[in-house]
Specification:
- The complex is a heterodimer of chains A (334) and B (559).
- By secondary structure, chain A is mostly helical.
- Chain A has a domain at 68-159 and 266-331: Cytochrome c oxidase, subunit III, four-helix bundle (Four Helix Bundle (Hemerythrin (Met), subunit A), Up-down Bundle).
- Chain A has helices spanning 2-11, 26-31, 50-85, 87-93, 99-125, 128-157, 171-181, 190-200, 203-214, 236-240, 264-297, 307-331, and strands at residues 230-233, 249-252.
- In chain A, α3 packs parallel to α12, α4 crosses α11 and α5 runs antiparallel to α12.
- Chain A is elongated and about 70 Å long.
- The termini of chain A are far apart.
- Chain B has a single domain, classed as Up-down Bundle (Cytochrome C Oxidase, Chain A).
- Helices cover 65% and strands 2% of the residues of chain B.
- Chain B has helices at residues 27-31, 36-64, 77-112, 121-143, 157-160, 165-192, 205-237, 250-284, 291-305, 319-347, 356-379, 381-387, 391-421, 427-453, 468-498, 553-558; strands at residues 423-424, 500-501, 540-543, 548-551.
- Chain B has a two-stranded antiparallel sheet.
- Classes of the chains: A mainly alpha (334), B mainly alpha (559).
- Chains A and B meet through α1, α3 and α11 of A and α6 and α7 of B.
């Protein structure tokens, strides 16, 4: 049936539109593949030529990437609005992110994007060993990214830095962290630590700081005698009787210590949502790369057929690109 | 399929061996199919079921509002909130948005292109499964403690109510992806699967409108996706973006929500306009008037749809934003009116045949005009302050979503029914169903305009006694409309068993899908279709024996 109707199609002088080749498919051109209509086992029945199939897949993937950008777009808009309305929470919050780890992750992802691009090239050239090697390296990069991300997350969570209403930071340890991370955390000198301890000294401070982690709601009821060194800020909502812990800031008026703004938890909410959704995309990307890797090991890909490698590659570059925006927006604020 | 030896001119291919409905048997062959026609039929069945439930909820609402105070036994105010939420959410997300594109579009679109299938058949099947999963989540919400937020899920109520908001939101999120994948599939199919000779301006206008719809689906729906994810995050973790308790801004949710949901209104209406553009010329036996204008106006509506969302929040924005959004909203009426005028001009001096689909098309013209013009009252800032959140708004959007989209969906269903199932339904019952629905619809919703101008707020369980007469009329209308829809259902189901076999081209359309058999071969065409002007009816002749049209020899030579 298929070949018959195609015969009629050509007889009636109504051959399908010759689709222009994109630059990535020059390898196909050289092999002269575009003349053997319908002979490839990978040509699905409803397409007339491999080019038509390839170009359809490519357009579909670009459209899908557009939807992904819009999906993240909502989060970027939320970020922009809160950055504009409450810049102080971003200035405060970014001290808790480690730019060294973030920067390492950026490098890891860019490298994995490079190996992915190389994989596409090797797939087009039919070099199976190199293709498999590049895909394994890409997968390794993705794993590395997630491992580093795991350490970043667990480091925060162990100190009670959770998003939203679960935000219950362990102030004593965070102060150390803050002073350590001050000046972008490039050095974790002992001096900083000592300085941090120095500030945290004093019994009444300890008491005030220990409370939030255990029973955050109590904080507003336990104002330590501040004596000019501490100021308790109570939000209107807390006064209304239902406010969460994050709204009560214990603010140190020491110039080097940034104040914890009322809505500090929003920064971490946005941070966890953006990086979490990105992390989910990394996991999806790993599944896709793993699937392509299995096919590559079977030797499916060659100059005639490499669409999945190309499309997964595009997806992976987008995941990389989103991180390249997330990194400065979250880690490099000042 | 029966094999007939008599070959009439109007029924050139009576012998259909590879009929897509019967070439494979068993429920599994349907559940694993990648055939766009079968997927379209599966969508049709599922959407009709959801429509039945959404409609029953509407009947409960109207029964409750028949008289002030508690009317339906056992239906308290909280339960009422859940019922109208379910009605809205089911109708919007499960019925109207996927209705025309996923059910009719899936069936017709590749055939109009002379293609064998959509570009990504497996993705197409996945869209259907996503629809089913989304519907299951809606059912989970329904049977646990149904959401009572209204279909818009406005914060802060949606982050504080104890009802099952999360399952409903997850359902809407999944349905959004179903919609995205359908749209993506259609865009690629229209771009890449056209045969040579079928240029953009030879496409049937249905495809232009489906294309414009698909653009909106792909661009707007992800924003709904992230909005709903944020809503879930807000409920679960209190991230503080929408919930003022945690420092958020509830109006931001409205902006996010309407950035999708206003374009979604055009996701609903654009395919309906496409269906009307197909039916009116066929039943006027006259070339469509202003093809280019109609095609471009579809794209213009899609573009405008993204910059008018603010008109849902006139009561909570700055005067400057209000003026801008008001002005842009007025502008949408231009491409919409362009279409209405062109359809009317197509009717002018045509030889109109009042077959059932044409009855629906004419009903659409009336109802869409009312729905569109009342939109201008709401786009006007001064009147909107008065009419905001009243029954005027309810009546307005029902005129567009039901009076236009559902009517066009039913019209399109009757129009393509012979092609889809190969059977002719009873014209008498078809027209009777259409007329009853049309009358019932107007009796239901015209009084609501009056109710709204008099200050009856929407979504209320109870009302003042002076509103009772109009509410009672509206409820009676709703029951008439329900009866009309059941007549239609009976008419269509009856035809499946007892209907006459349909000719290949019973209406005399020049679009490609009618060059196939009725029902089509599973590869769509047994003979490659000839591409021509989709609205040129000059060479079509009626064959009374076959009860269908055929193209004369001169016509085929010229094509």
């Amino acid at each position: 049936m298929g070949s018959e109707s195609r015969g009629i199609l050509q007889d009636s002088g109504r051959t399908r539109r010759r689709l222009t080749m994109t630059t990535e498919t020059q390898a196909i051109d050289k092999s002269g593949h575009d003349h053997d209509h319908g002979h490839s086992p990978y040509l699905q029945h409803h397409f007339d030529t491999m080019e038509q199939q390839f170009n359809s897949g490519k357009l579909g993937m670009w459209l899908f990437l557009a939807t992904e950008i819009l999906l993240f777009g909502g989060l970027f808009v939320a970020y922009a609005i809160y950055r504009a309305l409450h810049p102080e929470i971003f200035e405060y919050g970014h001290h808790f992110l480690d730019p060294v780890m973030g920067g390492t992750n950026t490098a890891v992802l860019i490298l994995s994007s490079f190996t992915m691009a190389a994989a596409v090239r090797y797939a087009q050239e039919g070099k199976k060993t190199m293709l498999v090697a590049c895909l394994v390296l890409t997968l390794g990069g993705a794993c590395g990214f997630l491992v580093i991300k795991y350490f970043e997350y667990s480091h925060k969570m162990v100190h009670g830095v959770f998003p939203g209403k679960f935000y219950a930071p362990d102030d004593h340890i965070l102060e150390e962290e803050l002073m350590g991370a001050h000046g972008h955390g490039h050095e974790e000198g002992d001096g900083h630590h000592e300085e941090g301890h120095g500030h945290a000294a004093g019994d009444h401070e300890e008491a005030a700081h220990e409370e939030p982690a255990a029973a955050p709601m109590v904080v507003s009821q336990t104002p330590p005698a501040a004596e000019g060194e501490f100021v308790i800020e109570k939000s209107q909502i807390a006064e209304a009787g239902g406010g969460p812990e994050g709204l009560v800031g214990i603010v140190q008026q020491e110039p080097k210590m940034p104040k914890r703004p009322e809505k500090a938890h929003v920064f971490f909410g946005i941070y966890y949502l953006m990086t979490g959704l990105h992390g989910l995309h990394v996991v999806i990307g790993m599944c896709a790369i793993g699937w392509v890797l299995l096919k590559a090991m079977k030797g499916v890909f060659g100059p005639e057929y490499f669409t999945p490698v190309d499309l997964v590659g595009l997806y992976w570059h987008l995941v990389d690109l989103i991180w390249i925006f997330l990194f400065p927006l979250l880690y490099l604020i000042d | 399929m029966a094999t007939t030896t008599d070959i009439y001119p109007g029924r050139p291919y009576t012998e259909v061996e590879g009929n897509y409905l019967t070439h494979e048997k068993g429920i599994l062959s349907w559940l694993t199919t990648v055939d766009h026609k079968r997927i379209g039929v599966m969508y049709l069945m599922c959407i009709s079921t959801a429509f039945l439930f959404g409609g029953l909820f509407a009947m409960v609402i109207r029964w409750e509002l028949f008289a002030p105070g508690a009317t339906v036994p056992g239906l308290n105010a909280d339960r009422y909130n859940q019922i109208f939420t379910l009605h809205g959410a089911i109708m919007v997300f499960l019925v109207i948005i996927p209705g025309i594109p996923a059910a009719l579009g899936n069936f017709v679109l590749p055939m109009m292109l002379g293609a064998k299938d959509v570009a990504f058949p497996r993705l197409n099947l996945m869209s259907w499964y996503l629809w089913v999963v989304g519907a299951l989540f809606a059912v989970i919400s329904m049977v646990t403690s149904a959401a009572d937020t209204g279909w818009t899920f406005y914060t802060p109520y949606s982050t504080t109510t104890q009802t099952a908001v999360i399952p409903m939101v997850v359902g809407a999120f999944i349905l959004g992806f179903s919609s995205i994948f359908t749209g993506l599939n259609f865009i690629v199919t229209i771009h890449k699967m056209r045969p040579e000779g079928l240029t953009w301006f030879k496409l049937p206008l249905f495809l232009w409108s489906i294309y414009a719809t698909a653009i909106i689906q792909v661009i707007a729906t992800p924003v709904l996706g992230i909005t709903l994810l944020l809503l879930i995050a807000e409920r679960v973790m209190g991230v503080g973006i929408f919930d003022s308790t945690y420092g958020g801004d509830p109006v931001l949710f409205q902006h996010f929500f309407w950035f999708y949901s206003h374009p979604a209104v055009y996701i609903m209406i654009l395919p309906a306009m496409g269906v009307i553009s197909e039916m009116i010329p066929v039943f006027s036996r006259k070339h469509i008037f202003g093809y280019t204008a109609i095609a471009y106006s579809s794209v213009a509506i899609a573009m405008f749809s993204f910059i008018v969302w603010g008109h849902h929040m006139f009561t909570s924005m700055s005067p400057l934003s209000n003026m801008i959004f008001s002005a842009v909203t007025f502008s949408v009426s231009i491409p919409s009116a362009v279409k209405v005028f062109n359809w009317t001009a197509t009717l002018y001096k045509g030889s109109i045949r009042l077959a059932t689909p044409m009855c629906y098309a004419l009903a659409f013209l009336f109802l869409f005009t009312i729905g569109g013009l009342t939109g201008l009252h709401l786009a006007t800032l001064g009147t909107d302050i008065h009419l905001h959140d009243t029954y005027f708004v309810v009546a307005h959007f029902h005129y567009v979503m039901v009076g236009s989209t559902m009517i066009a969906f039913l019209g399109g269903l009757h129009y393509w029914w012979p092609k889809i199932f190969g059977k002719m339904y009873s014209e008498t019952y078809g027209r009777l169903g259409c007329l009853t629905t049309f009358i019932g619809f107007n009796v239901t919703f015209l009084p609501q305009f009056v109710l709204g101008t008099r200050g009856m707020p929407r979504r209320y369980y109870d009302y003042l006694p002076e509103f009772q007469t109009l509410h009672a009329v509206s409820s009676i209308g709703a029951f008439i409309m329900g009866a009309g829809l059941f007549i239609t259902l009976f008419c269509l189901l009856h035809s499946l068993k007892w209907g006459k076999p349909a000719a290949d081209n019973p209406w005399g359309s020049a679009a490609l899908e009618w060059q196939s058999t009725s029902p089509p071969h599973y590869h769509n065409f047994t003979k490659e279709p000839t591409v021509g002007d989709p609205y040129d009816y000059q060479d079509f002749k009626w064959d009374p024996k076959a009860e269908g049209y055929y193209k004369t020899a001169e016509g085929q030579g010229a094509a």
